[in-house]
Amino acid sequence: MKEFIFNTRAYFSDTDAGGIVYHASYIDWAEHARTEMLREMVPEKNQTELAEGEDGILILVRSIRIEYQKPGFLDDVITVHTTIEEMRRLSCTAHQVVMRDDDILADLKVGLAFVNASTKKPALIPDFIKKAFED
Amino acid sequence: MREFRLKARVYFSDTDAGGIAYHRSYFDWAEHGRTEMLREAVPEHSQSELAAEDGILTVIKAIEIHYRIPAHLDDEIEIITAMDKVQRFSCTIRQRIVRGDDVLADLNVKAAFISKATKRPVPIPQDFLAAFEEAK
What ipTM is given for this predicted complex? Predict the structure, then answer.
């Protein structure tokens, strides 16, 4: 499946008093990368529009497994590589690798579930999203 | 296993436009829970003193989190932290975020100690090791 690349930078707001990137900042970068991937692959509806109406859906994070390999530092140029590994009826898994040049800083597996925006009950992944990711 | 409990509340800053607590907020709550556990276990040696006097930083090596039930604005939550495994260079901590009897999320956190200068792993300092063994 196609890999999506998202670039960002380690700002002061991402760092902590240890002089390195705070461990939860990787969770934010990963979210930003998944959002931009969705915007590119499914341009017809953004996440606000996806949530609207009776059949509106929300994408929820169900689980994260993150392994930190090297610290990131202030000013680093960060690249997040995202691929959708498994596409099921109600959920999917994203594999994300946070890199600085050729160095892997962190590796994430993110379990995502689709739910109805009003009832919060599990919902089928809409066909147009499935198709966009399978192409 | 001894459990450390920390109370917290869900503020606007923890929530997102989906109307629930944002998934990163659990990482912050868990960090606060671990820090307060550490402060209680080793009261004579804070993390800032460990960095300034010994040049040692505590870092996270891995986290696995499962989200079970969403938290909402104003919820009173508790972060329950327990030491699981203690090794020479790292330790594993189990954490649960609960609201009353409901488990909202559970986490497995692997933490380690590194040299501030070289960023290489160092053995867990003796006083921490002793406190962790006792907390197990």
Answer: 0.92
Task: Establish whether B16 is a catalytic residue.
Answer: yes
A→B interface, C-beta within 8 Å = 17-20, 23-24, 27-28, 31, 48, 51, 58, 60-68, 71, 117, 120
**Strands B4-9 and A103-116, bridge-based pairing:** unpaired
Residues A81-110: tens digit of each pLDDT? 999 999 999 999 999 999 999 999 999 999
Could you give all domains of chain A from N- to C-terminal order, each with its CATH number? 4-134 (3.10.129.10)
CATH topology of domain B4-135: Thiol Ester Dehydrase; Chain A (3.10.129)
Tens-place pLDDT, residues A33-67: 999 999 999 998 998 999 998 889 999 999 999 99
The minimum CA-CA distance between A127 and chain B, rounded to whole Å, is 22
Rounded Cα gap, residues A42 and A46, in angstroms: 8
Taking the Cβ of residue B62 and every Cβ of chain A, the question of whether any pair is shorter than 8 Å is answered with yes
Angle at A34 between CA A32 and CA A38, to 5 degrees: 115
DSSP alpha helices (H): ranges in chain B?
25-41, 47-54, 126-135
Q: What is the dihedral of CA B131, B132, B135, B136, to 10 degrees?
A: -150
Chain B residues touching residue A18 (CB < 8 angstroms): 51, 57-59, 116
Identify the DSSP state of B22: -
Distance, in Å, from the CA atom of A63 to the CA atom of A68, rounded to the nearest integer, reads: 16
> In angstroms, what separates the C-alpha of B121 from chain A's closest C-alpha?
11
CA-based Rg of chain A, rounded to a whole angstrom?
16
Rg over alpha carbons for chain B, rounded to the nearest Å, is 16
Subunit contact A24:B27, Cβ cutoff 8 A: yes
Contacts of A61 in chain B (CB under 8 A): 23, 67
